[in-house]
Automatic annotation (TrEMBL):
Its main location: membrane. GO terms for cellular component: membrane. Disulfide bonds join 157-192, 158-177. The lineage of its organism: Eukaryota, Metazoa, Spiralia, Gnathifera, Rotifera. SUPFAM superfamilies: Tetraspanin. The keyword Manganese does not apply. PANTHER family: TETRASPANIN (PTHR19282). The chain crosses the membrane at residues 12-36, 62-86, 93-117, 206-231. It comes from the Eukaryota. This is Tetraspanin.
């Protein structure tokens, strides 16, 4: 019984420590999701004038929202895990383990879907942006043209694929394609579709690293929570059995 009690103490400490780390990583995911949503680059690339007409634009925007939701859920779940470790309540521990299992499956599925859809998202953004670009200049939609100019300055790009796009719509290369919006400066070489996708994929290693770390902690947290719950059950049974034996001997 003493050895079992010692095991319960150790597992409780380990589970509490894992959930504190889980809490920190959950906060990191939440902060990164907020950063993406608040980022001027993200805001410009998916401005209302552009995003509403781009195929796949909504899918890209969902990434930031999904990270915020996962971050909030992770923080709340880690608090539940800490509560279960402190109170050693089997209901909290089993509930924590079940929710954690579901969260792990959802995170893994979302990650696989995101990575497998990378090429499709890139292609849909390129084709969608070209449709917006050509329609805006062919029909003189000034609000969209202004949004494209802002996009070009923010990402230091020109056109959808390159500066030749302006020849296709019979327009001269605008000042927004130049550094500092000065015609005396060189024209940006990269197209805006590629510039935005490159910026998005530069953020992927951070997402992969944080999500990977969370999944590892979740696995250990899952093992610790069920181990503690089972140990608590054995302890309660052993104490009940000891009481019954004592009463029988009496």
């Amino acid at each position: 019984m003493a050895r079992l009690l010692c095991s319960i103490e150790v597992i409780s400490v380990v589970l509490f420590a894992l959930n504190m780390l889980f809490l920190v990583l959950g906060g990191s995911v939440l902060g990164f999701g907020i950063y993406l949503k608040a980022s001027k680059k993200f805001d410009v690339a998916l401005s209302p004038h552009i995003n509403a007409q781009i195929i796949g634009g909504e899918a890209i925007e969902i990434v930031g929202v999904a990270l915020i939701i996962i971050g909030i859920f992770t923080v709340v779940l880690s608090a539940l895990g800490c509560l279960g470790a402190i109170l050693r309540n089997r209901f909290f521990l089993y509930l924590y383990g079940i929710i954690l299992t579901l969260l792990m499956l959802c995170e893994l599925a979302a990650f696989i879907i995101m990575m497998s859809a990378r090429v499709r998202i890139r292609d849909s953004y390129e084709s969608g942006l070209w449709n917006v670009f050509s329609r805006a200049y062919n029909t003189s939609q000034q609000d969209v043209i202004d949004a494209i100019g802002e996009l070009q300055q923010e990402f230091q790009c020109c056109g959808v694929y390159n500066l030749d796009d302006y020849k296709k719509v019979n327009r001269t290369v605008p000042d927004s394609c130049h550094m500092g919006q000065s015609a005396l400066q060189p024209v940006f070489a990269k197209g805006c579709a590629q510039a935005f996708i490159d910026w998005m994929w530069d953020e992927v290693p951070i997402i992969v690293g944080v999500v990977g770390a969370i999944l590892v902690i979740e696995i250990f947290g899952l093992i610790a929570s069920f181990s503690l719950a089972v140990a608590m059950s054995h302890f309660a049974y052993g104490r009940l059995r000891g009481t019954f034996v004592s009463e029988s001997n009496a």
